[in-house]
Amino acid sequence: MVVTQERMGTPSTGTMRAPHWPSPQPNLAGGKFPETGERNRDRFGISPFLACGAMMMPLDSISKGFDLRRFCPLCAIMAYAILSLAPTGVAAQVVGDPPVLTPGLHSLELPRPDEPAIRYAISIPGNYSPSTPVPLILALHFGVRGGEAAGAGGDLVQILIGPALAQLGAIIVAPDSVRGNWSSPENEKAVNALLDMVMARYSIDKKKVAVTGYSMGGAGSWHFAEKFPERFSAAIPVAGRPPASAAGWRLPVLAIHSRDDQVAPFDPTEARIAELQKAGVNAKLIPLTGITHYQTQRFQGALRQAVPWLREVWK
Q: pTM of the entire structure?
């Protein structure tokens, strides 16, 4: 198994990480995580061992270390064939390729003609089989200072979404945003293209597709569920600003928000859930106290409550 650290150089082809979910930390105060872009993984309990992938040599460097002309032609051909399988960059996953089936968290890229490629992380559950449809979770990451979001989707899966929703046995796909806010037209187009690919390539139960996200991704969850309700069966925004009005809202929604959130105020979420409940929508709020906006991991416990809630919605 190849283990890499995306922050330290280009991720490797077929890059994979075993589903090791860090345990919640009691206090992450001062960890300026989502909105500031200061993403120190060690601070959130993710092992520095993941950085070992940065030590890998590129293919050119490896091949220069051997004088293949000294081998017989057949040996040379075999050697180059083996070297061609070595990690060289982010795996490009297009419609004609076989889907990734190995359990774990993979960093991949979806190329698009005349548009930026979509970088994303995808988590495959341990019991996944193409013969058995599984739920799909779209996970939208937090804001990143400067808009450079490379690897942010994978960070969110490791820190929050993966540990909290593991019992669903779902595929989790987490795109990296294209230059900022999830509600922008280019991010709408990229996310929908990614969903189309995943739905076509993997065995997904189309009645069990949910969108979730944290902070900017929480606001994005509200946005995608409101604008593309035909794609989802539920929304689970975490610490995200809701829309100004819930008029016309159709989907079940479970909002998770802390009263002590100093970035995204609690009151608008409380008001929006009350509005939806009054309109007869399946809407629930999990209010938290004592957790500030940047203590991302501490939302794991509340998000775990989404597992039985989703199972009820999906009956």
A: 0.74
As for how many domains the chain has, the answer is 1
User: Are the CB atoms for 259 and 286 separated by under 8 Å?
Assistant: no
Q: Say if 185 falls within a structural domain.
A: yes
- Per-residue pLDDT of 77-103, as tens digits, reads 443 343 334 333 345 555 556 677 899
The residue segments making up the domain with residue 120 are 90-313
CATH of the domain at 174: 3.40.50.1820
Residue 7 lies in a domain: no
